[in-house]
Design brief:
four-stranded parallel beta sheet; alpha/beta; globular; 14% strand; Aspartate carbamoyltransferase; aspartate carbamoyltransferase activity; EC 2.1.3.2; Asp/Orn_carbamoyltranf_P-bd
């Protein structure tokens, strides 16, 4: 396997192997110097904490040499195109390029210039975030052991969420019963036969779920939805705060009342960062069913498993 751009690049066998390995690392994440001769470049053109840091730590744990490319101090500030930047990086002969971008197709375009080393998609536009979906699957398996017939609700702005779309593709492969809970204008188009769509997180729906996956409002991508949520309206501060934005978009908020209707063995997930008191009330985060920090830990473990899978 040379490039990893979407969930569709992996077989079910590959995915099962990665999940098993990631869970092993979750329980024993020691230094394993098997990539000491490898150079990995992180090319992140969007802000990131969890994804960038977890890829870097995963690489260090495997002994790789890591270079974090900073776009703000690069020749991109001198009007160099991103394609020219990528071609220059390719000429330096690294072993892997990990790329994140607001553009849907940039990782795919990048891979066309990278013939002798691997490209990993660390999040592209609104379409793909395959490593996040894999770490989410591994986190679910940590608690639930089996995905088939598991009830998973993905709640929030699913239309603009690459996390939602990658999770839909991945969890569908393993037979999960997926419910999308979004306002009509913010509901993903990635709907298949095994997916139920709802617009309100009602008590009966909550009570059925084994996994409740919450998403951010994705307000930085609202400009895509012209003319209803165009850039000018966002800039004009029509919405005085994220909380106001969330309320006006009519996306369900997770509150203590939500917890009252949720199964005792259900889990609540969020890819981060959490906007406290926006999509999730702060008081909810202390509930034992919230496994967000364990997702973050699994992020290092899964990305370590992915690097080993590709480079060894």
């Amino acid at each position: 396997m040379l490039h990893f751009l979407s969930i569709k690049d992996l077989s079910k066998k590959d995915i099962n192997n990665l999940v098993v390995k990631a869970i092993q690392y979750y329980h024993d994440n020691q230094f394993e110097p098997i990539l000491t001769d490898k150079i990995i470049i992180n090319l992140f053109l969007e802000p990131s904490t969890r994804t960038l840091t977890s890829f870097s730590i995963a690489a260090y744990k495997l002994g790789a040499n890591v270079i974090n490319f900073n776009p703000s101090t690069s020749s991109l500030q001198k009007d160099e195109s991103i394609v020219d930047t990528i071609q220059s990086i390719a000429a330096m002969d690294p072993d892997m390029l990990i790329i994140r971008s607001s553009e849907n197709d940039l990782s795919k375009i990048t891979s066309k210039y990278c013939h002798n080393f691997s490209v990993i998609n660390a999040g592209s536009g609104t379409t793909n975030h395959p490593t996040q979906a894999l770490l989410d699957l591994a986190t679910i398996m940590l608690y639930k052991k089996n995905i088939k017939n598991l009830n998973v609700a993905i709640c929030g702005n699913t239309l603009l969420s690459r996390v939602a779309n990658s999770n839909i593709n991945l969890l569908s492969m393993f037979g999960a019963n997926i419910t999308i809970i979004s306002p009509p204008a913010l509901t993903t188009k990635n709907i298949t036969e095994n997916i139920t769509v709802a617009h309100h997180l009602n008590p009966n729906l909550i009570a059925e779920q084994d996994v409740l996956m919450i998403l951010r409002p994705q307000e930085e991508r609202m400009m895509i939805l012209e003319p209803q949520y165009n850039k000018e309206r966002i800039k004009a501060h029509i919405y005085s705060s994220k909380k106001d934005l969330y309320k006006k978009l009519k996306i369900n908020q997770i509150t203590p009342t939500t917890l009252l209707n949720l199964k005792k063995d259900a889990i609540i997930m969020h890819p981060g960062p959490v906007n406290k008191n926006v999509e999730v009330m702060e008081s909810v985060l202390s509930d034992d069913r919230v496994v967000i920090n364990n997702q973050v830990k699994m992020g290092v473990c899964m990305r370590k498993a992915i690097l080993k899978h590709i480079l060894v």
